[in-house]
Design a protein that fits this description.
9 helices; Peroxisomal Thiolase, Chain A, domain 1; about 30% helix; 13 strands; binds acetyl coenzyme *A; alpha/beta
């Protein structure tokens, strides 16, 4: 039987560390000002979210989301002992694409130097914080049917350019950071039903679509974009909007339910799983999920404290961070559960 194997893993975060002490003083260009631009503070942010710092990409026009994806992809390919030319498919999840269209996967394909061979299919997926599990489900289906044999699954986000550095945007702005995580997946022949990618589930409830969103434009209208980007009264379409309490409640429910279903449907218990890697939206959400789903505390991996929420990147980034720390090892079985804008959510069980 053909099953899907994780061949390589890699991640990347930019060098600049933005602490909770610094963030109230940043202007829209991420330049530290003498006076506070946003009324927020370390205590509020840590108490509500667990975040202490996050990483920001340069804002000089030199870095796009596909550049962050490229660094993570190169590391995942090296880990898999493969070349970019070996890939026959890229699945890229992001809510901060390089431009509106085409998707960011084709920009990544070009930066990987494999555009002209034309042998690598490119998909962009728009499941926000759930992109890793949705993408893994797609990759698993493609590999098991023999459609593709070397798939690069990447989550990458350049959030810091689309946040609002003032009181209007502070509830969202303090949460997010930039980063990327990538996995290379391929087929293996095995009779072991627990091997490789063992389980994936993906869910959605579109009635929550406008509880967490970023419009930028409305294609139904003409002109579809009718504000001056420098006009603060009218430019709020440029920034994410969130009903934090509804997101919180739905995230806990979706992640608990998908985690419990993953164990029930596979017949696994926590003794069979080495690590629980939840999406990194907010440490309080993850603590609640762990409490309600009765997940052993010593199996839980987080990075939200120092990377913030990197949306599509959080799961591979967190696994790779803890692998670099020597905690996660090849052969470990991981249960990951995610929740994101849409609402979308799901879970996966796989062996690294
Ligand atoms: N600093 C200081 N004060 C703030 C900030 C900030 N950054 N943001 C909001 N406030 C203020 C509000 O304006 C409000 O002030 P008011 O009482 O004068 O009106 C006060 O703090 C309390 O606001 P609430 O919205 O009631 O705060 P709450 O306790 O709900 O915490 C939070 C807000 C942290 C956003 C919470 O709702 C939450 O954790 N939600 C989950 C959202 C999340 O994690 N999203 C991640 C992205 S989604 C995803 O990845 C799945």
């Amino acid at each position: 039987m053909i099953r899907t194997k994780v061949l390589g893993l890699g991640s990347y975060v930019p060098d600049r560390v933005v602490t909770n002490e610094e963030i109230p003083f940043l202007d829209g260009r991420h330049v530290r000002q003498q006076t506070q631009q946003t009324e927020t503070n370390d205590q509020w942010i840590q108490q509500r979210t667990g975040i202490k710092e996050r990483r920001y990409a340069p804002n000089d026009g030199s870095v796009a989301t596909s550049d962050l994806a490229l660094e993570a992809a190169k590391r995942a390919l090296a880990d898999a002992h493969l070349q970019a030319g070996d890939l026959d498919c890229i699945i890229l999840g992001t809510l901060s694409p390089d431009i509106h269209f085409p998707g960011t996967a084709v920009f990544l394909q070009k930066k990987l130097g494999i555009a002209q061979s034309t042998n690598c299919a490119c998909f962009d997926i728009r499941q926000q914080c759930s992109a890793f599990v949705y993408g893994l489900q797609m990759a698993d289906a493609f590999i098991r049917t023999g459609m593709y044999k070397r798939i690069l699954l990447v989550g990458a986000e350049l959030h810091s350019h689309a946040l609002e550095y003032n009181n209007r945007g502070r509830d969202v702005m303090v949460l997010f950071g930039d980063g990327a995580g990538a996995m290379v997946l391929g087929p293996m022949e095995t009779d072991d039903p627990r091997a490789g990618v063992m389980y994936t589930s993906a869910h959605a409830d579109g009635s929550g679509a406008l509880d967490l969103y970023l419009k930028i434009f409305e294609i139904a209208k003409l002109p579809y974009l009718d504000y001056d980007a420098t006009d603060r009264e009218r430019n709020e379409f440029m920034y994410p909007k969130m009903d934090g309490k509804r997101v919180f409640l739905n995230a806990v429910r979706g992640m608990v339910m998908s985690t419990q279903a993953a164990l029930a449907k596979t017949g696994l218990g926590w003794d069979d799983v080495q690590w629980f890697v939840p999406h990194q939206a907010n440490l309080r959400i993850n603590e609640k999920v762990v409490e309600v789903a009765k997940i052993p505390h010593d199996k839980v991996l987080n990075t939200i404290q120092f990377y913030g929420n990197t949306t599509a990147a959080t799961v591979p980034l967190t696994i790779d961070y803890w692998r670099q720390q020597g905690k996660v090892k090849r052969g470990d079985r991981i249960l990951s559960s995610v929740f994101g804008s849409g609402f979308t959510w799901g879970a996966a069980i796989f062996t690294l």
